[in-house]
Amino acid sequence: QVQVVESGGGLVQAGGSLRLSCAASGITINNYATAWHRQAPGKQRELVAHISSLGRTMYADSVKGRFSISRDNAENTVYLQMNSLKLEDTAVYYCYAGAWGQGIQVTVSS
User: CA triplet 10, 82, 90: central angle to 5 degrees?
Assistant: First the structure.
């Protein structure tokens, strides 16, 4: 059974940084594509960043140049480094690695 647990969220001021972690079990992440999505209040869930099994990455236009997705195969963990955070980055962030995580809140304050 695949389980995914996100961590690293919280409250940060605009312009700051956070790193989200997504620890997976029951799946070997480097064999699969994994992704981070987010859902802001009143909005649909949207794809933020994706990393393929080959390590190719893609990003939503709104986060290009600010966010970076990576993985540590030894730790079976996917990361989302978020820099230069903006108010509009406030959302619940979800990791998908064969299953959805429970989501983690990221709040950016002015």
Answer: 50
What pLDDT is recorded for position 107? Answer: 98
3, amino acid identity: Q
Distance CA 102, CA 110 (A): 27
pLDDT at 85: 98
Closest CA to 22 of 45, 61, 50, 46: 50
DSSP calls for 1-29: --EEEEE--EEEETT--EEEEEEEESS-G
Residue 96 and residue 51: Cα distance in Å, rounded?
11
Backbone angles phi, psi at 76, to 5 degrees: 55, 45
Q: Report the SS3 class of residue 92.
A: strand
- Name the stretches of the chain with pLDDT < 50: none
